[in-house]
């Protein structure tokens, strides 16, 4: 009986530790790399710049926003977001969460957040504050050991 306890108790301990570790979610290096790409993009927007963001997107990327097709990221920056950023005093994300699923060579992200934009005041007026709840989904592809955003879609609504 003592021999069974001597063998059984260490085995039970190993199984218990393995079960606990199996329940803890692990983040792969690929997921970390994808999160880093999305974080760089978010930080650039908060800094009201597009500098360094073109390398995050594939040349033939597709951007969809608020039910509209914006074209490639370059087109989106030139005709939409780029000019808008120059009218912002502040652009902040809060309550930010990201989920990542990797299935090489693709990765899929879902971001949820609240954003606050303070628009520059027109002459004699107070700055306008926009506060919205948003969601964005993106598809990234790994090519030549680099993750690039190939499609992104975002939408938002007024905060309740």
TrEMBL record:
The UniProt keyword set, sorted, is: Signal
Q: What is this protein called?
A: SnoaL-like protein
**Which InterPro entries does the record cross-reference, listed alphabetically?**
NTF2-like_dom_sf, SnoaL-like
Key word Signal present in the record?
A: yes
Signal sequence residues: 1-22
Signal keyword on record: yes
> In what residue span(s) does the SnoaL-like domain sit?
34-155
């Amino acid at each position: 009986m003592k021999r069974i306890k001597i063998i059984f108790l260490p085995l039970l301990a190993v199984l218990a530790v393995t079960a606990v570790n199996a329940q803890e979610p692990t983040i792969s290096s690929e997921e970390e790399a994808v999160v880093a790409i999305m974080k760089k993009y978010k930080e650039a927007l908060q800094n009201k710049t597009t500098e360094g963001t073109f390398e995050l997107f594939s040349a033939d990327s597709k951007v969809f926003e608020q039910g509209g097709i914006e074209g490639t990221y370059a087109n989106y920056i030139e005709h939409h977001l780029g000019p808008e950023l120059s009218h912002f005093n502040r652009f902040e994300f809060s309550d930010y969460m990201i989920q990542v699923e990797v299935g090489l060579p693709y990765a899929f992200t879902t971001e949820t957040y609240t954003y606050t934009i303070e628009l520059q005041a027109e002459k004699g007026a107070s700055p306008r504050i926009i506060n919205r709840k948003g969601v964005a989904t993106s598809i990234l592809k790994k090519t030549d050991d680099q993750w690039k955003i190939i499609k992104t879609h975002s939408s938002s609504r007024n905060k309740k």
